Amino acid sequence: MQKKCVIRDKCILLFTLLIFSIGTYSLFGNTRGINLFDLAAYQHRIKGVVTDTNGIPIQGVNVKLQDASQGTFTNEDGIFYLEASPSDVLVVSYIGFKTLVVKVGDTEELSLVLEEDVTDLGAVTVNAGYYTVSEKERTGSISKITAAAIEEQPVTNVLATMQGQMPGVNISQTTGMPGGGFSIQIRGQNSLRLDANAPLYVIDGVPYASEGIGSNSTSGVLAGSTSPLNSINPDNIASIEVLKDADATAIYGSRGANGVVLITTKKGKAGKTQIVANYSYGLGQVTRFIDLMDTTAYLQMRREAFANDGITNYPSNAYDVNGTWDQHRYTDWQEVLTGGSAAYTNAGISISGGGSQTNFFLSGNFLNQTTVFPGDFRYQKGNVHLGINHTSTDQKFSVSFSGTYTTQDNNLPYTDLTYISRTLPPNAPALYNSDESLNWENGTFNNPLSAFEGEFNAITYDLVANSLISYKPFRGLELSSSFGYTNLQHRENNSNPSTLYNPAFGIGPDNSAIFLTQTNRDSWIIEPRLRYQTKLGTLSMDFLTGATFQNRTNYNLGQLAIGFPSNSLIHNLEAASSIQVNGYDNAMYRYQALFGRVNLNFKGRYILNLTGRRDGSSRFGPGNQFANFGAIGAAWLFAEETWVKKGLPFISFGKLRGSYGTTGSDQIGDYQYLDTYATSGGLYGGNVGLTPTRLFNSNFGWETNKKLELALETGFLKDRLFFTTAWYKNRSSNQLVGIPLPATTGFTSIQANLNATVENQGWEFTLRSVNLNHKDWNWTTNMNLTIPENKLLSFPDLEGSTYRNRLVIGKALNIDKVYHYTGLNSDTGVYEFEDYNNDGAIASPDDRQFIQDLNPKFFGGIQNQISYKQFKFDFLFQFVKKEAPNAFASFGMPGLMSNQPLEVSDRWQNPNTLGTYQRYSTGVDTEIRNGYLNYQQSNAAISDASFIRLKNLSISYTIPKKWFYDIECRIFMQGQNLLTFTPYKGGDPEFEFSGRLPPLKLFTTGIELRF
Predict the structure, then answer these.
(1) Which helix (H) or strand (E) holds 519?
(2) What are residue 492's DSSP bridge partners?
(3) With b meaning 16 or more CB within 10 Å and e meaning fewer, what string describes 279-317?
(4) 941, 890 in Cβ contact below 8 A?
(5) Who contacts 186 (Cβ-Cβ below 8 Å, separation ≥6)?
(6) CA distances (Å), 535 to each of 479, 529, 542, 602, in order?
(7) What pLDDT is attached to residue 893?
């Protein structure tokens, strides 16, 4: 008994010493901060949440300890629990996603995000609007880009992020002005009306009106009305999907005739709260200048022009050549007026996090961009975005909210100086006097900087909000409803003070004027939906039905105020001597629809997709307000067949799909079928009179677009090489146009449906290759090519209509009927053209029969993404094959008081010196003047404008977290429009020559922090 007590006492003593030693080491000897007394720190229960890049939990993910058999799987909320120590390494894997290897560390809850593996289509999902579908099983034509591609581009407009990256989507920039817009066509031009070919934009389920805001009288400096799409902040976008064929667009009915652009914003992710801050700064410059004459060549042209016209004494107003201006002075006006650097500053911060039930994403962004012009002009944009998701513990109820508020302040000069910079004589006087006042050179010089006395200013406030509520009463059934709201308020003005003009003219503030435009848009939409999914053996069935109720009001007011006691009062309308209403519109648009979808999937390889929609629009007359649209799509995953797996093992994926259906269009404006009236502006008996402006047409109905597509998708070598070929044919009929009327009716036209048919067909090719897929090295290439063809198939009595000089049956809509240039007369030095009607003169539209197709012959892009450890290198080349008007379409006649492209130096001088271009003249020679006017309207004024452009370039390096106290730091350089290869000599080939500022090449550097 005594021996047992001794043994017990020794054990107690040894245990006490052990505890004391461990405690002492913990207090004094542990320099690494590890609490050895807490043995649970080595083996404790950790919790983890696994989501995809969109924050959606992933069920069934395998989570195991590296070099051990211990592991588990995530539940339906993406949550897992596992016993692990801080030094353990987790291996997280799931089919369709890249394997993630992460160290546990000392945290008790891990937030893990799996990236999609581009070589597994079964796990990649695309947004089809009212539903999502896997890339593998989709039957429609949908192109997609994600935030990873968008974030690599220093752009301000959402359409700029899509250029060169999507087959069938042709996008071009309309101006290089900050805050300017873009034009877009998805699979060609469907409507005869140029303003009715825009796609439908949907932001988080809310339709977004893309029609221009403001008016040309105020925002002409932006090459037309202000684009509302600038309100969408690219930094907030998670993905963009473009729906193209009938199977994808028919569920949107009349709104999907020209394609649908779905924009999904970023949402919250479950896990540890994460803050991301970024800042970038860069400079932009004009992409290309035109080679113009210097002073020596210019003055030689002017003197020769006078000599050719027999004028020996120069006129008093020929200041450039008569000695009034310095004959030896030279200024590169392109460099002075448009050669500056536009500063680009972009800063943003976001915070996201939450649990598996409730998570959030909140971001703020500020952008400031100046211009390449002299002076203090800038475009500023601020943006706040909030996304919240909540799911009940039983996963039956969920609610989400997303809201974005954007404010824009755009301050630009009164006019675009690009055309002036190209035409101003190179020996024109200096811009400033010695006292830094504007130089008018004693009334002989219209100083271009006087344009800065006036200004264009636009302020926009834009709110887009959406909420989705969903309830799943039992497995397979989901009841949901979305509620959307948009509100846009826009104010812009264009001031024309008297200081714009040469003081020699004696114009005072009583002639000063200001144009003002006010636009308010307000829209709401409610869409209840029911979805049921079930299986019968090997047949999976998915049923969707729903309704749409939409209401939009649009208010627009345009005013002109003239005559002020002082230019300082030009923004005070009460000080104006006269105020006119240039335009007023207060319209309401209502839209209702029922839609449905049935998707049948047999054995995972035979898929049938049926969609239908019944639309009702307030834009049509009684009896024509409703129409039905629908489509059928089918797909056969032939690579899943046993005979393919055994006989053709190198084919890892194979799908043959097709679709046919109808969509429609009501893009005609409001009240077009009614007999409407406007104020006459005059008084009769003391009252303002009314003037009829439109005739009533009760038969006014829907434009219809029938779409057909066949496509083949194939993957080889485990989808490391993936190729898609698609052929499409779309026919748009029942065109909504103004049909000409006899003048005796008092109206020039009546809005009606014309039985004209427009066809768009073409080929689309995409190729994706995973060239390297190594632990350290990764290299992926994406290519796309589109070969479109646009054609007018029929047009009743075209020759008797007002379209006869613009359209030709069997040719594209975007054509020019021009004179056919046959060459230079070697005896007279005058341009000559083909006389189609053989009347001996080139003076009527009857001789303008040469067809010049201005549609692109093909377009596309090649993108490479290369990464090595923490380095990443992305670049995109965009290419377009097309023809476009050249510089001669807009420049004045060589010999006038206007600079010219240097190439006109190769001119005819005498019968022994032929040259390429017509002899010079000051304009008094009628034969020369008419020859040049006809030349501008001939095929000679249209040139090859094909180009290959380094559209995007991004280089980044991610500094390891351990270097910055667990803060991930990424430094990057990004470029836009950096290099252009083209034979075009009229400036920028994408923009073509129009006298407006072309797109800018932009280079930025920045930093991003994640903690």
Answers:
(1) strand 513-536
(2) 458, 517
(3) ebebbbbbbbbbebbebebbbebbebbbebbeeeebeee
(4) no
(5) 168, 169, 170, 199, 242, 244, 258, 259
(6) 19, 20, 9, 10
(7) 94
> Sheet holding 206-208: strands in order across?
142-146, 237-243, 260-265, 200-203, 206-208
Residue 123 has pLDDT above 80, yes or no: no
Taking phi first (over 0 means left), then psi (-120 to 50 degrees means alpha), and beta for anything else, what does residue 253 get? left
d(CA 826, CA 915): 9
Strand 883-885 to 850-853 pairing: unpaired
Q: Which amino acid is at 514?
A: I
Q: Residue 765 is inside which H or E element, if any?
A: strand 757-773
Using CA atoms, how far residue 942 sits from 302, 803, 859, 993, in Å, is 26, 21, 19, 10
- Distance (Å, whole) CA 358 – CA 352: 11
Nearest alpha-carbon partner for 624 in 699, 543, 735, 733: 699
The residue among 733, 631, 593 whose CA lies nearest residue 246 is 631
pLDDT score, position 944:
94
Q: What is the DSSP letter of 889?
A: G
- Which among 53, 238, 260, 52 is positioned nearest to 140, based on CA atoms? 260
- Averaged pLDDT for residues 795-816: 88
Interatomic CA distance for residues 182 and 180, integer angstroms? 7
Q: State both tokens at 223.
A: 């090459």
What are residue 784's DSSP bridge partners? 766, 861
Residue 699 DSSP code: T
Based on C-alpha coordinates, what's the Rg of the chain? 34
**536-548 pLDDT tens trace:** 989 999 999 999 9
What φ, ψ does residue 1009 adopt, rounded to 5°?
Answer: -120, 135
Other Cβ atoms within 10 Å of 572 Cβ, number = 13
d(CA 645, CA 624) in angstroms, rounded, equals 53
- Can you tell me the distance from the alpha carbon of 345 to that of 823, in angstroms, rounded to the nearest whole number? 51
At residue 50's C-alpha, the angle toward residues 47 and 54, to 5°, is 145
Specify whether the backbone of 514 is left (phi greater than 0), alpha (psi in -120 to 50) or beta: beta
Q: What is the pLDDT of residues 904-947, one digit of tens each?
A: 999 999 888 888 999 999 999 999 999 999 999 999 999 999 99
State the residue for tokens 């190198």. 650
8 Å CB contact between 982 and 957: no
In angstroms, the CA 218 to CA 559 distance is 10
Q: What is the pLDDT of residue 566?
A: 92
- Distances in whole angstroms, Cα of residue 904 to Cα of each of 79, 354, 541, 823, 985: 73, 67, 69, 15, 12
**Residues, the chain, total?**
1011
Measure the CA–CA gap between 865 and 768, rounded to whole angstroms.
11
Least confident of 65-79, 220-234, 373-387: 65-79
SS3 720: coil
Cα 326 from Cα 321, distance rounded (Å): 9
